[in-house]
Structure formats: structure tokens, C-alpha cells
Amino acid sequence: RYLSTLNISGKDYVSDDLTNIRQSISSHVGRNVYLLPNHPISILNSLIHSHFGPTYTVVPPKSPIVTPEQNFDSLSFPPDHPGRRASDSYYINRQWMLRTHTSAHEVEVFAEGHKRWLFTADVYRRDEIDASHHPVFHQMEGARLWSNTEISSLVEENRQLETELSRQDILIEDLTTIGQSNPIQPCHDEMLARSISTNLKLSINGLLLKLFGTEGNGPLKVRWIDAYFPFTSPSYEVEVFYQGKWLEILGSGVVAQSTLNKAGIKSEAGWAFGLGLERIAMVLFQIPDIRLFWTTDERFLQQFQPGLVTSFKPYSKYPPVTHDVSFWLPVVHEGKAPFHENDFCDIVRDIAGELVEDVKLIDNFAHPQTGRMSHCYRIQYRSMGRTLRQEEANLITQDIKNQLITMFSVESRG
Length: 414
Ligand code: PHE
Known about the structure:
Elements: E1 5-8, E2 11-14, H1 23-26, H2 40-52, E3 57-58, E4 65-66, H3 68-71, E5 97-98, H4 106-111, E6 116-124, E7 136-147, H5 152-164, E8 170-174, H6 190-212, E9 220-229, E10 232-242, E11 245-255, H7 257-262, E12 268-276, H8 277-284, H9 298-301, E13 321-328, H10 341-352, E14 356-366, E15 373-381, H11 390-408, E16 411-412
Parallel strand pairs: 3-6, 8-9
Antiparallel strand pairs: 1-2, 4-5, 6-7, 7-12, 9-10, 10-11, 11-12, 13-15, 13-16, 14-15
The structure holds phenylalanine (PHE).
């Protein structure tokens, strides 16, 4: 049940054929958990602010309701980019959507005149359901620009930053191929693009050492790799080896001149990055389930204090309830979007809310004679605060099945 008129932060929006927002999503708008002083996201956010220091402006909050022009076009996303699909993004209607990343505000913030800035916000993406995915999460965007006249000081600053990074504490593997498959923009000379990239890498390496460097045994392993974003070139991703796994930290690169042009900035150049806060907070605070960031249970928030990274002590884990849901997909009609796994996940989220812990496609086959497709999903429910009753889970699953039948004309398989 998509909402037919949406009231989001006190404003009414009329739905249309693109609308795919349900109550379970719109209810997150305005919660602003990242502004609660003892929330882990807020603690991490402040820690990053303090690394960059007072020369960086912390840009005040902006509404998550943006236009596709802000979220995509202003950043040179091509018209057929997969991120624009209704299966991946939340649309209020054809005119408005929920931002999928903090980059949606790059042009705006550059146009406001900020040269060094950090901006944190809630972002919205349709995705799978498990302990590390939530359709609403937080990103921080950071950027720094240099004017033509400031560029001369950049090489010296980089040399300084280089000496400050202790090579005993950090092991950097730089696999980037700037200038080759990761092109420098035609308007930049090679020295400039390289110096900006070096400054970005040094600034972020310093941050990573501050966040992860306290684990002890041996230097922190950091890996820089090539990436692609329509709004940076060259582009990079960085990963950190932490608690036995490579963890994706952020996307970044040299800001596209097209972005700066839209902000009315002609003779400046610089870098930008966008990092996801939840994944980092989960490992630093040892938070086992991403849903906990949205809980109002005092036993969660009570555990944390501003300025301190402390391990979460799980309160008792209640037993899960697992149900399988099998159905035949309708025959696909030409011009009609086929059923997407995210459609299933959104229905489950809408009906089960924060009681759903995990959804997996466990079987997917085509009937040998008719060619019709069948899907079987395993849904795991669990409450973070009490024992979930069987009857309650049964009602939720029945409701999910009914919704699937009415919205997607699927045929239940018992
Ligand atoms: N917005 C990008 C994302 O969400 C990250 C990014 C930000 C990349 C800034 C480059 C520059 O994946």
C-alpha cells in the first residue's frame, strides 16, 4: 500500500505512477537520530568533525526531499543510470524523491560559498534486508576547494601532512591508476589533479588512523582503489582492514568541473568524499544489527556518551521466528516493470516494520512446462526488545501474502 497522498514533514504531496514510498519509510523523515548527542552515529560524526578541525564548516541540516535534478542531473548522472530506477530509489512522485546520497546537495553547498565543508544527513535507498542493510542510513559528504592562487601552497601542505602520518601506524596500499583508466579532467593539468588527489588521500588516511588506529597489533591496513562516479574524476574508493575483513569506507575523487560550473565557481578545483556512517559505527561500537540505530529503547542510547567510542553490550537477544513465503510471479506484460526483490523487501518492511531482521531468496525456479517463475523467500523476524509471539508473526506473514497478491498479482504456493 503505497500512500496516495503523502504527508512528509508537514507538507502534502500527491502521488503518481512513480510513487513507491510507504509509511515505514516516510516515518523516518525528521527523526534526525544523528543529532541526538549520545547516539553512536552522532558520536562518530563529531569525531570526524574534530579530525577535520574548525577550518571546515559543518553545513546545517537540509530537507531529504529533493528533485531528481538535484540528486542525479546536477551531478551529471546519465539519463539511463541504474540509480535512477524506481526499484533502487524512493520517489514521492515524478517531481520529488528522497535523496539517495549527500552528494545531492553538492551544487547547493558550493553555491553557498563554502570552500571546506562537511555535511551529514539521512539518505534513502531501496535495498535488501539483513543485519547490515537499512533503507535509511547516514552519509557524510566532505569537500575542499582551492583557488588558483592557493594551489601553490598545496604541494607544501601535502609534504607536511606526509610527515605527520606515522608509517609505523599505517600501511597504505595505493592501487589507483590516475591518468590512465581513471582519467584527469581535460580542464585540469596533471600536477593539479595529482596534488589534489594526494591531499585527499592524506586527509582521509589521517582520519582512518584516528578512527581505527587504536586496535593495537601491527599497522592499520588501508587500500586505495580506482572507482567511477559521474561527478568526480579521477575517482577513488578506500577500504580498511579491520577485525579480519576489508571494510568499504567511502567514495571520493576530484570534483567534476561541471558540478562547480553549476554552482557558479570558475577558477577553483578540489576534492570531495562521501562516507557511510553506519558501517563504521557498527564495527567501532560493536553494534550487531543496523536496526538498533533506530530503536527508541533506552537500554540502547543510555550506553553511549558524547566523545567516547565504547562497545555496545547487547541486552538479551530474543528468539527469532522464521517463515517461508513461496509464490508464482505473474506473467510479465510488455512495458510493465517486472517484480523486483526490492518490491518484496519493501512490503515486508512496511508490514513487519523493525520486527524483520533478515530476508533471503532461498529458491528461484522456472516451471519446466509453463516457464512461469516461482520465488521462495525466507523471512526472519525478531524483536529487539521482547519475545515475538508465533501468532503475531503469523498475522504479519498473512498480511504480506495478501499485499503481494493485491499489488503484484502473484499466486500463492501454499
Ligand atoms: N555519493 C557517492 C555515493 O553515495 C559517494 C561520493 C561522494 C563519491 C563524493 C565521490 C564524491 O556512493
